Amino acid sequence: NNQMSDFGGPAVLVDITNTALDASVVISGNTIFQAAGLLPATTAAIDVGLAGAQTHAAVDILDNTISFGPGATAAAFPAPPAVAVEAHAIKLAGELNGVTVTGNALDGGSLGGNGGEPAASGIYLATTSSRFGPIDANDQVDVSLNEVSGFVNGISIYDETGAAFGGLPAANQVNIVRNAIAGNDDFGVRSGASNAVTGICNWWGSATGPAGAGPGTGDAVSTHVL
At residue 153, what are phi and psi to the nearest 5 degrees? Predict the structure, then answer.
């Protein structure tokens, strides 16, 4: 239940290397306003990285409001400089044994991008990270009941070491279910080879479903999204 604004890096940083997270972490009820022009590239407002090859306690990211740019609240900060960065609301990387992202309102404020990948995203899941290692097939990541809008990609699933979208292991337990993912510029959910992510029962901004690899006219999904 904190209010935070205008950082030069993450508002909340969980950085666990070379050991296990022994006690659960709950990040809940916070309101984060961020002028995107203050951030370096590829920064997330809530940034969670957990060392690979470890068994970690749970991380719950619940009921937070994260907004970028002057569209969030003009009274909170002036308009940011005309700088386009790959800013993200929430980033997850490493051995994600039990991570829940539920009930968050993520507003990109029509963030652009400067050509890097992945482009500005509401939720960015790094399937392989040079710092934290890869996500494991037995890891559990549940993304539900979030509202994600105003980004280039609502949700990006990206392999940092391979510099390509996708990279989820077989039989992965990454579930993107019952979210409102609408009003994002390029993709609602973008992933890639070689294994699919579960993205069912979401609202994509149209009753016809998602565009792209989907059947409808809502926010697009890429290949390898179920």
Answer: -115, 130
Mean pLDDT of 162-180: 97
CA angle 209, 224, 127 (to 5 degrees): 120
User: What pLDDT band is residue 69 in, cutting at 50, 70 and 90?
Assistant: confident
Q: For residues 98 and 83, what is the distance between their CA atoms, to the nearest angstrom?
A: 35
Residues 6+ apart with CB under 8 A from 171: 137, 195
Contacts of 107 (CB under 8 A, 6+ apart): 65, 66, 67, 68, 71, 72, 149, 150
pLDDT band at 138 (very low <50, low <70, confident <90, very high): very high
Q: What's the alpha-carbon Rg for the chain, to the nearest Å?
A: 16
Whole-angstrom Cα distance, residue 178 to residue 160?
Answer: 27
CA 32, CA 6: separation in Å to the nearest integer? 8
User: How far is Cα 37 from Cα 109, in angstroms, rounded to an integer?
Assistant: 12
Is residue 148 over pLDDT 80?
yes
pLDDT band at 84 (very low <50, low <70, confident <90, very high): low
